[in-house]
Each structure stands twice: as C-alpha cells, then as structure tokens.
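Ligand-bound model needed. flavin-adenine dinucleotide.
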Amino acid sequence: MSGTVHVLGAGLAGLSAAVKLAAAGTKVVVYEAAGHAGGRCRSFHDTEIDAAIDNGNHLVLSGNHAVMAYLDTIGAEDTLDVVGPARFPFLDLQSGLRWTVEPDRGRIPWSLLSASRRVPGASLGDYLRCWRLAGAGDGKTIESCMKTNGALWDRFWAPIIIAVMNTDPALSSAGPMWRVIKETLALGEAACRPAIPKRGLSHSFVDPALAFLRAQGAAVHFNERIRGLGMTNGRISSIETSSGEVVVASDDRIISALPASVAADLIPDLQAPDRFSAIVNGHFRLPVGHQESPFLGLINATAEWLFVRDGIVSVTVSAADDLALQPAEQIAETFWGEICKAYDLGNLALPAHRVIKERRATFLQTPDQIGRRPDCRTQWGNLFLAGDWTDTSLPATIEGTLRSGFKAAAMINAL
Ligand SMILES: Cc1cc2nc3c(=O)[nH]c(=O)nc-3n(C[C@H](O)[C@H](O)[C@H](O)COP(=O)(O)OP(=O)(O)OC[C@H]3O[C@@H](n4cnc5c(N)ncnc54)[C@H](O)[C@@H]3O)c2cc1C
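Prediction:
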C-alpha cells in the first residue's frame, strides 16, 4: 500500500487499525475530535477522588485473542492482571446468599453433575436446556431460545448477558452472545480468566498504542473534528476537518472509526444502528482495606458488578437508561448503601465519589439493531468502516472493536 491511510477517530477501533497499518509500514494519519484518545474506553484524573479512574469498568477475558494480539503488538501485554483460575463470585444482596461460578478446566463441564458446583437452585436440566442458544442466530432474541426465569437465569445468565450485551438480557440478540460463550465459557477455564488493567484502561489500551504509533512515524492529530467528506466518482476525494480540507490522493484510503451516529451523518445512505443503551458507573474511595476478590456480581441490587482496585471501589450498571435519568447524587447514595452492605462496612459516610453516565455506551443489541450493522466495505471504493457497531459478529465490546480495526487494516494492507 503506497499511499496514506487517514484514520478518522482514535477510539480503540481507530487505534487498532492504525497500529496494524503502521506495523506493516503503511503511512498513517489519525484525526480525533477530542483532546485525548480512547473514546469510550479511557482513564482520566478525577479531581473529586484525586486519582486516575476509568470512564467505566471494562472486563475482558483471557479468551479475547484480539485483545491479547493488540496488547502484544503495542508492548502492553504486562499491563493486564490475568486472574486465574477463573472464579466469578456472586452475592444476593437481599438474601445474603453467596455462590461462585468456577468454569471447568476442560470443554465439557463435568462438574455440573454435582449439585454443589451448580448455581444454587439450578438443576442439570436447566444447564442442558441452554444449548438451544447455540443454534439461534442474530435474528433471534435470548428469550426465544432460553428460559428467562428461575435460579439459573436470575443467578447466572441474566447478570452475565446484561454485562456483555448492555441490553435487556431477554431481548438481546442470541447470535453475538452465543459467539462470546463459544470463545470463552465453552473452551474451559483458561479462556475465562478475567484480565483486568493493572493501572487503568488508558495505561493498557491507549497510551502504549499512541507511543507505538509515534515510534512508527504515524501522525495523530487531536482536537481535529471531521466535519464532512467530499465524494467524487464513487470515492472519497477530500476530508473536511475543523482545521481545513485534506485532499485525498488517488492511492490514499480512509478508515472511518467514528461512532455510529457520527458516521451515519457523514456517509450518505449508511445504514447503522440508531438506538443506544446507557451504562452508569460510580467510583468511590474505599476508606478501608482491599477486598478479597477484585470483583463481585450482585443480584437483587441496583449495582450489578463491583470492582476494587487501588483503594477505589467501582460500580457498574448496564442497560441503565432509566437509572441514568436520576440525579448523580441519588445514584451515589444508592450505590454506596449497597457497597456497605456487600462488604459489611456498616454505615460508613459517603466518601469522595464520581458517578459517570455514558448515555451512548453501546448500541442497543436487539436483533433489529444487530441487523443494521454494516460491513467494513462501503459503496465508496476507498472508504472502510471500523467500530464496535460494525458487523463484527461479536457484541459491542473491546474484543469486537479491535477485530473491526484489524479487519479494516488487513483489507487495506492486502490491496
Ligand atoms: C461505560 C462503558 C463500559 C464498558 N464496558 C465494557 C466491558 O466491560 N468490556 C468490553 O469489552 N467493552 C466494554 N465497553 C464497550 C467498549 O468500550 C466499546 O465497545 C469500545 O470502546 C468502542 O470503541 P470504538 O473505537 O468503536 O468507538 P469510540 O470509543 O466511540 O471511538 C470513536 C472515536 O471517534 C471520536 N469522534 C467522534 N466524532 C468525531 C469526529 N466528528 N471527528 C473525529 N473524531 C470523532 C470520538 O471522540 C472517539 O474517540 C464499555 C463501554 C462503556 C462506555
């Protein structure tokens, strides 16, 4: 590839595409509207807590091979703590019941033959019936192929599916969820180990990528918003940025790694997901020592997952459009009450905290919206798409995002 590749957007899709291209010796220029990279997956210094926090807790698993390949390329593989053996502790905040999901080492979950290794109240038959998910495609909802009540649903599937799909679990598309299971749970324990950034999202996913790009001679322009694309004879001929027009040479290519709604505004006739779903996070400075597990799933609570790192406990709630309507202080009070109960902290006063509402955390991953995901190729010969909302076949996650960037880069590198 002899020309320049113009990468629009420096979220993880744009960064992964740029990294892959730069590693192959291709000339790359990245344009990012914000003053920083990382998009929906980043860290920043919070003045209230006086520490670096992530915009939201992000969990990846050891089976996410694009994550591992990306970190390996940018030299950041040591920045994740891969916690093994995989254990997922849960607490029912109402009843006080605790249980832990521990995937088997092999592909066949023999341990489920023993009632003590199952989720409390779930029968072997409940587990066996879940295999109907395997045959269901993108057009089916989870509720059309799985029982959406009972112990196994309430205590395992619902909390896992909502965290992965960021959509009402019963109404989520079955296809992407099944592919996640196929690449993690179905492969056994070694593919399910939580991989948690040691010092935050930017330290793992963003800063090393920017350093890598700089070292390869790639240019990254911040505060450079894409305002329009000029189109001539079936190709992109110019890029209008906030600081002027960039003429696209005949052997140049463009990767749009912009959010779905921005891409849909800039690219005529682009069909893209157009409904979104919020995630609410709360970060609290913990006035007491570190907890035993780095994370805990909560049932019968507003908070869904608690993560603890460096004296800060962080709460995640997915599919949180309704919660996001509440004032931040009200949300903080609710979360803190539940944290105190979960960790037996008594009535500790609300500490320094920050609530972050990401109203468009991902697109809504129902069959209808999944069906609107476009392919990487477009009708414009030199324009390619990347992003978690493009047709990655996976849910809108880091793993899918990185694969979309890699795919766009591979298509261009192959030209
Ligand atoms: C709170 C939260 C929690 C999450 N939890 C998880 C998790 O646990 N596990 C997981 O795998 N995934 C999780 N995700 C999803 C994951 O963060 C996303 O899938 C991924 O970051 C999407 O990356 P992207 O590059 O496709 O999009 P974005 O990150 O949105 O990147 C797009 C970039 O384009 C820039 N941009 C926008 N408009 C313009 C313009 N006009 N000109 C130039 N640049 C522009 C933006 O500033 C941004 O940097 C979570 C997301 C959120 C928000």
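Residues 8-14, 31-34, 39-41, 55-56, 58-60, 225-226, 257-259, 262, 279, 281, 358, 361-362, 387-388, 396-399, 401 surround flavin-adenine dinucleotide (CB under 6 Å).
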